[in-house]
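Hi R.,

As promised on Friday, here is the backbone we talked about, encoded as structure tokens. Could you run it through your design pipeline when you get a chance and send me back a sequence?
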């Protein structure tokens, strides 16, 4: 007969660990599923790079040159037309590296887009740069000609994403970061 003796502290440790892992998983499921949990509408957009930070109001933002993109939302299965400002234009205001200056270690630069609910996604600087990557990434302030409204003043939209998981609603912060492997 093989008998395995588990001491009480060890059993407690296993229990704690297992339940933490389990709840961490549920948290991920919740993030993925409850897309329209009560959200705080974004009312401004802060752009940050190194020690530079710029905050734009919806009025400041509306005054910038806009582009329009037509996308298929793979989640709602609807065609959508967004109008907004290319992310590259916003990053240029911060003096973030772009174009031919993006070389070597600068390819380890990321762009984090965050919503008022704390939902965050990572784009790479290279994919935001039209001289490097195809497709468009814009910060939209209108959807089908109307303010985004229930999803806040701003939403980031990427034309190359089939599933809109990186289309952060209630967008209120964009940070340029160096990714450390
Ligand atoms: N702020 C915020 N944006 C978010 C999410 C979120 O939880 N919070 N979920 C993402 C996911 S996983 C999807 S599929 C889409 C769904 O948004 P839609 O129903 O408006 O298309 O929003 C994305 N943007
Ligand atoms: Mo999703």
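Update: got your reply. Pasting your designed sequence below so it's all in one thread:
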């Amino acid at each position: 007969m093989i008998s395995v003796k588990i001491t009480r502290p060890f059993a407690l440790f296993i229990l704690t660990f297992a339940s933490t892992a389990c709840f961490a998983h549920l948290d991920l499921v919740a993030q993925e599923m409850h897309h329209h949990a009560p959200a705080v509408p974004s009312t401004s957009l802060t752009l940050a790079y190194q020690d530079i930070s710029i905050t734009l109001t919806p009025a400041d933002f509306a005054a910038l040159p806009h582009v329009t993109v037509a996308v298929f939302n793979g989640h709602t299965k609807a065609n959508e037309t967004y109008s907004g400002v290319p992310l590259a234009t916003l990053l240029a205001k911060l003096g973030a590296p772009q174009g031919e200056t993006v070389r070597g270690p600068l390819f380890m630069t990321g762009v984090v887009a965050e919503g008022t609910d704390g939902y965050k996604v990572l784009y790479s600087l290279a994919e935001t740069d039209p001289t490097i990557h195809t497709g468009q990434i814009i910060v939209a302030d209108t959807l089908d000609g109307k303010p985004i409204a229930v999803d806040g003043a701003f939403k980031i939209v990427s034309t190359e994403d089939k599933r809109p998981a990186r289309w952060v609603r209630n967008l209120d912060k964009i940070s340029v970061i160096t990714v450390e492997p």
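One thing I noticed while checking it: Residues 1-34 have pLDDT under 50 and may be disordered.

Thanks again,
M.
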